[in-house]
C-alpha cells in the first residue's frame, strides 16, 4: 500500500485560538462575548486540589457571570460520568460550557455542550456524523500538552463493556480554544511525558495516515513534531521552563489540528483497550505500543518516516531514505525509553493471558485501523502487544 497526500480535501478546525500567558483570567470576558451569563466549568478533582481553578473562577465572577463548577470528571470518562456532568449543567441552568483540564475534561465538556443543546443518548451518537445540533457555546482550556482535544471534533467515552467509543462530529469543535502555558507549569514529569508522547503520536499518525492526509495536515504535523521533539526533554528536566511549556502546548494543538483532519491509526487502536480494561492513562497506552507499531509499519511508511527524521533529528545527514527511516524509529524508541513512566505492559498490570482479549478489542477499532500504513491482522495485534509485555 502507498501513502498519498490527497489533492482533494476539506479542512476544519476550531474557529478561534488564543495563545496567551495568563489568558485564563480572560475567561469571563470571552464567555460574555459568546452571550452567556451562566456557565458550567468542567474539570477534574486533581486540578481543583492543585488550586488551578481559583483564579479562573474568580475571573468569571468578576465579569458578572454566574459560574458553577463540576469537578468530578473521571479519566477515560465512562458514560455515567458524562451523564452526571450533563445533569450538573441542567441544575446550573448553564448557557455555556468551559472545559478546563486534560483530554478527559475537554471531551466531557464537548459532550455536555452537545447534549444540553440537543438532548440525545450517547449510544445513538457513537460513530461519525451521528450527533445532532445545536450545542451550547463552548470554550476549551487545556492544562496538558497532549490530547489536542481543544481543536478536534472527537470525544472518547468508555462504555459499560469497557470499550472506548468515539463521538465524531464537527459540532464538537469548540468556539474558542484558549492556550495558557502557565496552567501547565505544575504538571509532574510523568504526566508531562505521557501527554507529550500522545501529542507526538498524533503528529506521526496524521502524517502517515492512509486516508485524508493533505497538504495542511502535513504542514501542521511537521511543525507540531518539531516543537514537541525540540522541547520534550526540556520540560521533563525543568517543568518551570515557560517557553518550553508554551512550545509543547502549541505543538499539541497543531498535532490536534492535523489528526482531526487526517485521522490516527494503529497506535491509537491498540492503545484504547489498555485504557478500557486496565485504566492505563491514554498517553502511556500510546507510548507503550508506539515503538513496535513504528517497526511494524516500517516498510509501508519508509518515505514518510524518513521525512520525519529530519524533524526529530535536525542537522543529521542520511545517506539513504532507508537510513533516515531507521534513524527516526530508533530516535522515537529511545525517547520513549528515557521517559519517566512504565516501559512494559506487565508494569501496568497486563499478563500474557490478557493478550488475546486486548488484540480482539483492538481489532474492533476499525475506524482507526483502516488509516494505518500497513494492514493489521488479529495475529499482528497480538504480536505487537507481546513484544512489549
Describe it:
- Its cofactor is Fe cation.
- It catalyses: a secondary alcohol + NAD(+) = a ketone + NADH + H(+); a primary alcohol + NAD(+) = an aldehyde + NADH + H(+).
- Helices cover 50% and strands 11% of the residues.
- It has 389 residues and is of the alpha/beta class.
- It has 2 domains: 22-179, Rossmann fold (3-Layer(aba) Sandwich), CATH 3.40.50.1970; 189-387, Dehydroquinate synthase-like - alpha domain (Dehydroquinate synthase-like, alpha domain).
- Strands 1-9-6-4-2-3 form a 6-stranded parallel β-sheet, with helices on both faces. Strands 5-8-7 form a 3-stranded mixed β-sheet.
- Helix 7 runs parallel beside helix 9.
- The model has no long low-confidence stretch (mean pLDDT 96).
Number of H/I helices: 16
Q: What is the fold-level CATH name, i.e. the topology of the largest domain?
A: Dehydroquinate synthase-like, alpha domain
Radius of gyration: 20 Å
The percent range for strand residues is 5-15%
Instruction: Please give the largest β-sheet.
Output: 6 strands, parallel
Distance between the termini: 29 Å
Cofactor: Fe cation
GO molecular function, one term: alcohol dehydrogenase (NAD+) activity
Protein name: Alcohol dehydrogenase 2
Domain Fe-containing alcohol dehydrogenase-like C-terminal: 192-387
Provide key terms for this protein:
389 residues; Dehydroquinate synthase-like, alpha domain; 6-stranded parallel beta sheet; single chain; Rossmann fold; alpha/beta; globular
Amino acid at each position: 500500500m502507498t501513502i498519498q497526500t490527497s489533492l482533494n480535501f476539506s479542512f476544519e478546525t476550531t474557529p478561534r485560538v488564543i495563545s496567551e500567558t495568563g489568558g485564563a483570567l480572560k475567561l469571563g470576558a470571552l464567555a460574555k462575548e459568546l452571550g452567556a451569563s451562566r456557565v458550567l466549568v468542567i474539570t477534574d478533582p486533581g486540578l481543583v486540589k492543585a488550586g488551578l481553578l481559583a483564579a479562573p473562577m474568580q475571573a468569571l465572577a468578576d465579569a458578572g457571570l454566574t459560574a458553577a463548577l463540576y469537578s468530578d470528571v473521571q479519566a477515560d470518562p465512562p458514560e455515567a460520568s458524562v451523564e452526571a456532568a450533563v445533569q450538573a449543567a441542567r441544575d446550573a441552568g448553564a448557557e455555556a460550557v468551559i472545559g478546563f483540564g486534560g483530554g478527559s475534561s475537554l471531551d466531557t465538556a464537548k459532550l455536555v455542550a452537545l447534549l444540553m443543546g440537543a438532548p440525545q443518548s450517547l449510544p445513538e451518537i457513537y460513530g461519525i456524523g451521528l450527533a445532532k445540533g445545536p450545542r451550547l457555546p463552548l470554550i476549551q482550556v487545556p492544562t496538558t500538552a497532549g490530547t489536542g482535544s481543544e481543536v478536534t471534533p472527537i470525544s472518547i467515552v468508555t462504555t459499560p463493556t469497557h470499550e472506548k467509543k468515539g463521538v465524531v462530529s464537527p459540532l464538537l469543535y469548540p468556539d474558542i480554544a484558549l492556550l495558557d502555558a502557565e496552567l501547565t507549569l505544575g504538571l509532574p514529569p510523568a504526566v508531562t511525558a505521557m501527554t507529550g508522547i500522545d501529542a507526538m503520536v498524533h503528529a506521526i499518525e496524521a502524517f502517515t495516515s492512509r486516508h485524508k492526509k493533505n497538504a495542511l495536515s502535513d504542514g501542521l504535523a511537521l511543525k507540531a513534531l518539531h516543537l514537541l521533539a525540540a522541547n520534550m526533554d526540556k520540560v521533563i528536566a525543568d517543568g518551570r521552563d515557560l517557553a518550553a511549556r508554551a512550545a509543547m502546548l502549541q505543538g499539541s494543538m497543531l498535532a490536534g489540528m492535523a489528526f482531526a483532519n487526517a485521522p490516527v491509526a494503529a497506535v491509537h487502536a491498540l492503545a484504547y483497550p489498555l485504557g478500557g480494561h486496565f485504566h492505563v492513562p491514554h498517553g502511556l497506552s500510546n507510548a507503550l505500543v508506539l515503538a513496535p507499531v513504528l517497526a511494524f509499519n516500517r516498510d509501508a511508511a519508509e518515505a514518510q518516516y524518513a521525512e520525519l527524521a529530519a524533524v526529530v533529528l535536525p542537522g543529521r545527514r542520511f545517506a539513504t531514505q532507508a537510513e533516515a527511516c531507521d534513524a527516526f524509529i530508533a530516535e522515537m524508541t529511545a525517547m520513549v525509553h528515557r521517559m519517566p513512566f512504565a516501559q512494559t505492559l506487565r508494569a501496568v498490570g497486563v499478563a500474557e493471558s490478557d493478550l488475546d482479549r486486548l488484540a480482539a478489542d483492538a481489532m474492533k477499532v476499525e475506524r482507526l485501523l483502516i488509516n494505518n500504513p500497513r494492514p493489521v491482522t488479529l495475529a499482528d495485534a497480538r504480536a505487537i502487544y507481546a513484544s512489549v509485555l
